[in-house]
Amino acid sequence: MKRVLLLAMMGAVVLPFAARPRAQSKTDFSGTWTLDASRSDAPMGRGGRGVGGAAGPVEIKQTAATIVIGPATYKLDGSESVNQGRGGEVKSKARWDGAKLVIETTRDFQGTPITSKEVRSLSADGKDMIVETSISTPQGDRNTKQTYTKS
User: Rounded CA gap, 95 and 55, in Å?
Assistant: First the structure.
């Protein structure tokens, strides 16, 4: 009887902690990334530019509050970030969807609104960054998937 009571008490103490969802850590995209053209769709933009408008490797610096991708800085709390892009101001909101980083952007290009959604994730081994981008323009929608390798 004492054994059963002891087991019941241990279960009452241990089970609530085991049942709690574990806090999921945020993915760290920091580093230098190079587009792997053989495993990627054609990048969006003129001149073969990839993520962040850079033709070469992309440098990413990340803290708990912000992520800097090339020349653009995004707040990671879901609030609006404003950066300069081709043709003017670019407004974005970055948020976490589990381990994935989602950046939704709106810009005005010569009086035409353009929206895009970029979803970043890392491969299981952390050596590849996958960037799935969807962009909506008056001429239609386009989706691309690009794979970057860490240098």
Answer: 26
Backbone angles phi, psi at 127, to 5 degrees: -85, -20
Inter-residue contact 113 to 106 (CB < 8 Å): yes
State pLDDT tens for residues 59-100. 999 999 999 999 999 999 999 999 998 778 999 999 999 999
What is the CA angle 43-110-46, rounded to 5?
20
What are the strands, taking DSSP E only, across 14-150?
A: 31-35, 58-62, 66-69, 72-75, 80-85, 88-97, 100-109, 112-122, 128-137, 140-150
pTM, entire model: 0.77
Taking domain 25-150, whether its CATH number is 2.40.128.20 is answered by yes
- For the chain, the domains span 25-150
Residue matched to tokens 């690009």: 146
Are the C-beta atoms of residues 43 and 50 closer than 8 Å to each other? yes
- Reduced to 3 states, what is the DSSP secondary structure of residue 61? strand
At 30, is the secondary structure helix, strand, or coil?
Answer: coil
CA distance 104 to 116: 6
